[in-house]
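Re: the request from the purification team.
They wanted to know what the chain is likely to look like in 3D before they choose a buffer screen. I agreed to run a prediction and write the result into the notebook, where they can find it.
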Amino acid sequence: MKFQFNVGNDLGNSEQDIYVDGKLVQQPNVFSIAGQIPWVDDDTDVVKNLKNIYDNLAVSIVATAGVPTGLYLIGKHALKTNGENVTNLYVKGNNSKANQTVPYVNTLGVIAARAVEKANEQGELPNEISVDVDMATALPVKQHTPANIQTLQSNFLNGTHNITVHLGLTKKVLVKINFIYVHVLQEGSPAVFSLQMNSSGAWRTAGYEGNNNETTPIFLEFGNTYSIENIDGSYFDGKNILHLDCGDGTTDTPFTRGDSVDKDFGSGVNHGVGHAIDPATNDLLALAPHAFNSVSRQQYSEILKSQFTSRKHKFLNEALQAFGPHIDNQVAQIMKHVSDQTLIIGTNDIDIIVVYGGGSILMKDKLYPKLKELADRLRIQLLYVPKEYAITLNAEGLDFFVKSPIYAALKEANMNTVKGIKTNTKNSNKEVAATNE
């Protein structure tokens, strides 16, 4: 059995949001190494694991992409099995994602799981599946260097990757993954696509998948704030946008003129929610000494996110209390950077500041009022993307891009910059930004 997958891969410091063959998979971006297969039989485990394959993902990887040979528990399975004893992306210093193991283990594992899932959906469960992959991914602005791009590409493109997905004690499927082409954008820039268009190429009003009947339209608050009626993605067509892509470890601030990234002003800072959570962890343990032995960054993040759910964590108040002073420090540094960027670019050149990313949700109470005050003073509009859409905007943009004609042209040219491509379709206009990457 053989598949061809398009993959849009957002390698977040806290969460991986990845479109594989049109399906969005969201996982904590962590793994743990296991000593033995975690399943006890085939009769019950195989059925359970096929039904919830991403929650119970265990794969064996033979040395590839810089990954040591071993048995890996990925994402949610790693967290629920090993708690704080997981490997995640290191957010401090100048450690590039391209030089860490997590992106390779988790990407290969999720793609392999999707292959098994799709085969099962078609009524088959073969012993072996081959998958050809076209992938678009992204690196933070400061990490988007020729050396890091080459490392990321070569680790995926260097040969066939053999991934064994364990479904039961003995039942397993070998998935052979071959990457045909990998293109690496700057983090933040993929949103220039998904902010305007949905997956079918229509102007966006709500969900990327084209479901415009969702409870909260993506531009509702923005339209009400600036008295814009019947707003959709076309409003942002041709606008000059200063992006704030708020992640766990970085906040990237690419600047787009129309549909093109202006690389002269692409910047970012190593500040974000993860840098607040790390020091807050000890404070939380002091405030709730009998509640936890230890807390990982992902676990702390889940506690904080529970404030937006019907089932709030029992120690949410303590987590917020510990988190508060440290996120204040991060917001202050981000605001300083944004203020500097508006002066460097020139306030007259900036039409809109757009804020998104997983970190934007947990920072909104602190960050939004300060940004709104700055934007009003500078006569710049501010779109703070609602939490329902903020996390996946980059993954959606990468999915849109990897299926686009410009990706196909870049692939055909074998990473040579494509120039002079002309097309009459509206979608292709949305893709021009990628040629500047």
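For the purification team: The radius of gyration is 21 Å.
Please add any questions underneath this entry.
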